[in-house]
Sequence to fold (660 residues):
Amino acid sequence: MDEPTAALTREESERLFRVLREIRAGGGSVLYVSHRLDEVMALCDKATVLRDGETIDTGKVAEITHDDLVALMIGRKVEEAYPAPAVSPSPNLALEAKDLVAGRLAPTNFNLRQGEILGIAGLSGSGQRDLLRVLFGDLPVAAGTLALNGKPYRPSSPAAAWKAGLAYVPRERRSEGLMLTRPIFENITLAHLGRQSLGGIALTPRAEKLFAMGLGTDVRLRATGPRQLAMELSGGNQQKVVFARALGGKPRVLLLDEPTRGVDVGAKFDIYSIIRDMTAKGMAVILVSSDLPELIGMCDRIAVMRDGAITDIVAAAGLGEDDLLNRCYGRLPPAAA
Amino acid sequence: MTLGTIFRRYGTLIGFALILLIFWVNLPETFMTARNWLNITQQLSMLMVVASGMTIVMVMGDFDLSVGSAASLAGIVAGLLFTLGYPVWMVVGAALLVGLLGGAFNGVLVSFVGILPFVATLATLTMFSGAAFVLSGGKTISGKAIPEDFSNFARGGIPLGDIGGVAVILPNLTIVALLAVFGVWVLLEQTTFGRRLYAIGGNIEAAYLSGVAVRRLKLIAFSLTGLSAAGAGLMYASRVASANPTQGSGLMLNAIAAVFLGMTMSEQGAPRILATVVGVLILGVLDNGLTQLSVDSYIRQILVGGIIVLAVAASSITKRSRR
Fold:
């Protein structure tokens, strides 16, 4: 079984496990591939950890802990799962929204400083997607103002957003992020063809491949080369290709929608490191995620959205998961800004 | 490379070589001659132009079913303007403009109104055809109306000297087809425009989110296809020194068949212009060879259709087993 619970609810997963245990009781064997370590700990008798195509270790699940498994997978200790920020965000504002209305967004106010990672938490359907869409020019501004680095910002299309210095990593890499039948380098350069060509018209594939390879190194991409087809990569590497494209234009604001969903622990850390490297250089990040530990571990501040509006903005340092979850449900009064 | 990979990558080419061999063996005097081949290219030139244009929209995953009617309409417009006494260069320009605008209309329907290309071009197919009938009164425009300069174009060419004791010329129509192929090759393979079209064909949403101006590019692509159809219409009119409202009727299906044949030759099955050229050649060679073998024309149709099915099926079967 290869990541069988990726699309299952908790209840459905439990039912699957019952079936698997019955198979085991009947003398059958199950080979269970997963990066959901809770499941591996709960279900399996033995576990083998692979990393970069090599077998790292094999052992009985009873004799190992969750943290041990994580450490084996990523090759480092668990406390270091989220890289620490190197510098504090600058006081200069990268983005500012005042009474922004668009799509399902109720009047929304927030600001984003250069070098800052602003998390967006919330139950699904709270407007996070529309927030990203309006910032990225996919949804027109109905009312209110948006300012980018102090200047008014009204993107008419994603093309305009790219030009203004924003980059977007969409939620569904396969259906929204990649051209799976095209080579890696074409996927990466697509948003940058204006610069990665002669006069914006003539293609320069050799230069493009070098450009793509440079970015591939930055994102620690594991591929056979720039001409490998995107469909042949693992989920984590596919996500890195989308990142590489996003970073190719040296964006000032990076919009991330569930950037590590379906990505294994090792690639996750690589992605976090890339984000940290970029914020240290002044890039600002908006991180929409349903992974609460990720939000707490990576963000400087977290904005909570409910019913299309930002109801709360809290500092991430020292924030507890339960606290954050309660805020998402609206069970706690908004923190003093 | 395993045998399977070789068969998959080059199966269609191998099949083509086999067909060539069969004709060569059975028609030793007449098939593999320079004259015959130049003849084939001249017969194929109209289809080559339309198939090149069709490749442009098929790269995006779209179809243009209206190319045949657009060719007829362009021919009729040219014929009409000739009877009204306009000079050749103006008439050619006007006919090409008609094709361009017709294609742009398709582009607007697909991009801005949001109609499926198949449906939109099916509708314009009948509209263009109807327009051709209305303008021509349902009759052929011919003879004295068409200036000699224009009709001599299709007969003329560049002399290539003697090959095999026979004086041989490179037909003008073939030159036009070669220019069209070259133009599309540059556009699709060497420009950012072409790269963006392939991106749209790969994943339209991802292309849009990567900043590709999808609507504008589709509009331009369909316009170019319309332009190529008009070019073919003019070529036909020159060839037969007349214009009739059904002149282009065979073009559309053959053009799509040629592109599909070409797609069997590429990795991931994306349309490529040079592959389309092979597709057109396969169709033309089959037609030429079977005619010389005196195969009945209806049987020819069945055979050609059957070979297309074989090629595309072999390609998808081997592609499926690869995964």
In short: The two ends of chain B are 16 Å apart (CA to CA). Chain B has a mean pLDDT of 89. The longest strand of chain B covers residues 157-163.
